[in-house]
């Protein structure tokens, strides 16, 4: 892994309906992310937060079933530029959310500089909706589809090109809540998914071995998109769309440690931490501990 890490905060909360996730970047910083990474010997540059606009009225669904679309586009466009600057400076972009809609900008920023990008989507959800299939109109349920070039052009074309990733280079881990349209898309595109069924059956260790193999087959960089709601809400209660029955804190640590060992990850984001819904900043602290493992922290 690169020795220089650029942290980019994205205080976005308009991709979903529960206010508070905009404070995610600051509580993750408060939980000591910079210190943790510096202790591991990395040169960390905190580039601060991307500016997020405020619409005059909230919750506005447009005709395409895309809530607060304009602010989401604008923020992701700015984020894409920031991320691509970090990559150009040979730093590892570590993006702190914010709701998961920001993955559109993260991926737009990294995929620009990598020929074939792999993506590990560690999440309770598929985030494979479009305006047509979404039950909610919330854009945080759409970033993976958008990055595959599926959905409204105003989302798929962020960064000025599409798609950012190919379906065969994506792997989803931890899924246990998928909407009808998402299931269809998974089948149609042949996207590799390790649902909780596979995690239970194979164990996290095998799942990660297979996931790493899958995502490195035809790629020259891999982005980790980690939604804290992937973890069982027992360990990460501070999220807006919790789903019971997820991987434990330990299993997720193992996943991060195996990614660290493999050395394949070239950019990452940690999203959906909502301190208003959290218990004593537990979810932000979990995020920082997982970030530590991802960057090679070991007990002995
Ligand atoms: N990033 C997330 N937490 N996404 C949750 C999405 C929930 C649901 N599938 C939707 O489209 O609204
Ligand atoms: Mn999720
Ligand atoms: Mn998500």
Automatic annotation (TrEMBL):
Pfam family, one: Arginase
Record family assignment: Belongs to the arginase family.
Native species: Paenalkalicoccus suaedae
Pathway(s) it belongs to: Nitrogen metabolism; urea cycle; L-ornithine and urea from L-arginine: step 1/1
GO molecular function, one term: manganese ion binding
Keyword Flavoprotein: no
Gene that encodes the chain: rocF
Cellular component annotations (GO), alphabetically ordered: cytoplasm
Binding site for Mn(2+): 100, 123, 125, 127, 227, 229
Keyword annotations of the record: Arginine metabolism, Hydrolase, Manganese, Metal-binding
Annotated cofactor note: Binds 2 manganese ions per subunit.
Cofactor: Mn(2+)
Enzyme class, first EC level, given as a word: hydrolase
Protein name according to UniProt: Arginase
Residue intervals passing through the bilayer: none
């Amino acid at each position: 892994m690169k020795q220089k890490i650029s942290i980019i905060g994205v205080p976005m909360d308009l991709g979903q309906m529960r206010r508070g996730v905009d404070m995610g970047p600051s509580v993750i910083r408060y939980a000591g992310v910079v210190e943790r990474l510096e202790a591991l010997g990395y040169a960390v540059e905190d580039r601060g937060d991307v500016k997020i606009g405020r619409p005059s009225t909230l919750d506005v669904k447009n005709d395409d079933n895309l809530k607060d679309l304009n602010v989401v586009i604008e923020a992701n466009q700015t984020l894409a530029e920031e991320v691509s600057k970090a990559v150009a400076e040979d730093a590892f972009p570590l993006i702190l959310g914010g709701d998961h809609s920001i993955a559109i900008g993260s991926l737009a920023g990294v995929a620009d500089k990598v020929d074939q990008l792999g993506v590990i989507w560690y999440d309770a959800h598929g985030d494979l909706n479009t305006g047509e299939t979404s039950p909610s109109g919330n854009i945080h349920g759409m970033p993976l589809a958008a990055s595959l070039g599926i959905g409204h052009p105003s989302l798929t074309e962020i960064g000025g090109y599409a798609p950012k990733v190919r379906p065969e280079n994506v792997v989803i881990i931890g899924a246990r809540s998928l909407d009808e349209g998402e299931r269809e898309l998974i089948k149609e595109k042949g996207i590799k998914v390790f649902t909780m069924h596979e995690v239970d059956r194979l164990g996290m260790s095998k799942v990660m071995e297979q996931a790493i193999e899958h995502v490195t087959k035809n790629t020259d960089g891999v982005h980790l998109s980690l939604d804290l709601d992937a973890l069982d809400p027992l360990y990460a209660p501070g999220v807006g769309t919790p789903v019971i029955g997820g991987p434990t804190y330990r299993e997720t640590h193992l996943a991060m440690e195996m990614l660290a060992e493999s050395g394949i990850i070239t950019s990452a984001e940690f999203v959906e931490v909502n301190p208003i819904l959290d218990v004593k900043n537990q979810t932000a602290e979990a995020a920082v501990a997982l970030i530590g493992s991802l960057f090679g922290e070991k007990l002995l």
